[in-house]
Design a protein that fits this description.
Blueprint lengths: L11 H17 L7 E4 L6 E3 L3 H6 L6 H8 L6 H7 L9 E3 L1 H8 L5 E6 L2 H10 L6 E5 L2 H8 L7 E5 L8 H15 L4 E8 L2 H12 L6 E7 L11 E7 L5 H16 L6 E8 L6
Parallel strand pairs: 1-4, 1-6, 4-5, 6-7
Antiparallel strand pairs: 2-3, 7-9, 8-9, 8-10
Helix pairs in contact: 1-5, 1-10, 3-10, 7-8
The chain binds S-adenosylmethionine.
């Protein structure tokens, strides 16, 4: 496995993904009842934006750091900025990834399992998150964890599936594991991340998601480059299964704000729309 998230931490795709994750965690906390969170591809939890790797790629510079410079007073982004620990006028030195955001959101009654296949990353996550007995980090395959951990005892919560898409058959593996997880726990809130490198890849991702034939899928996409200008990602998307009430409108505002501040002139789009209805036609 070559993938190291430190090169990408805090890029526009992380911003979009984590802003949505923060809103979903907040929605779960509207009720006192305990929730469970499973992060199947957790990464190292906290990333040093001053590291050689982060500086070399410059992705955080064009992502979260630029957003903080230009959009720090955006009301739509206030929850996200608070969650990542951004302070007005101060340069963000450490970027919290999904594992750290989930761990920080837990209340005494909540619980999370963070799964990471690369031992060094998993150990970094273990060191970085304050567990207080509520978080378990596992060095394991995230797809196997879907089967092992679901449904959770709490019967409410979320699952983030955020693979690196390095393997050519990633989608096949993800599809199989997700459908099994959904069969076991159809009421869970699932967030599935997907990359968008060009129009063809986007179309393929949406077709694949529709082919799951599952109701209540919201797709939240943000693209900030034109295909010709982008060396890597043009954009990225999140398929959100069973989105909490009010998320569609809220994410629409958040993604529009991120796009306004980060997109190259005239490039990209922000689109938050239902991919499948409340019920699937028979
Ligand atoms: C995109 S990064 C995760 C970023 C993190 N979710 C975040 O938002 O901050 C993907 C991670 O998945 C890990 N990984 C790759 N294959 C895996 C697998 N089968 N099971 C668990 N983790 C895996 C990689 O080592 C990498 O740290």
């Amino acid at each position: 496995m070559n993938y190291r998230h430190l090169y990408h931490a805090g890029n526009f795709a992380d911003v979009a993904k984590h802003a949505a994750l923060v809103e979903c965690l907040a929605a779960l906390k509207r009720k006192d009842k305990a929730f469970f969170a499973l992060d199947t591809h957790a990464g190292g939890a906290v990333y040093d934006l001053r590291s050689a790797e982060a500086r070399k790629s410059g992705e955080a510079e064009r992502g979260v750091l630029r957003l903080l410079e230009r959009g720090s007073s955006e009301p739509a982004l206030a929850n996200y900025f608070a969650a990542i620990g951004a302070r007005a006028g101060a340069r963000l030195a450490r970027y919290p990834g999904s594992a750290a955001l989930i761990a920080a959101a837990l209340r005494p009654q909540d619980r999370a399992i963070l799964v990471e296949a690369v031992p060094a990353e998993a150990r970094a996550a273990e060191r970085a998150v304050r567990s207080r007995g509520r978080v378990r980090v596992e060095i394991a395959d995230g797809y196997a964890a879907l089967k092992a951990q679901l449904p959770p005892l709490e019967r409410r919560g979320l699952v983030l599936i955020d693979p690196p898409y390095e393997a050519v058959d990633e989608w096949r593996t993800l599809r199989h594991a997700f459908l099994e997880a959904y069969r076991r726990w159809p009421t869970g809130l699932y967030l599935i991340w997907y990359p968008i490198r060009d129009v063809g890849q986007r179309r393929a991702a949406l077709t694949r998601l529709e082919s799951l034939r599952i109701p209540k899928i919201l797709s939240a996409e943000l693209a900030i480059y034109t295909e010709s200008a982008a060396a890597g990602l043009v954009g990225s998307g999140l398929a959100i299964v069973n989105p909490p009430f009010g998320l569609d409108a809220r994410l629409g505002e958040i993604y529009a704000a991120i796009h306004r501040h980060l997109a190259a002139a005239g490039a990209g789009y922000a689109q938050v729309a239902r991919l499948t209805d409340e019920r699937m036609a028979q």
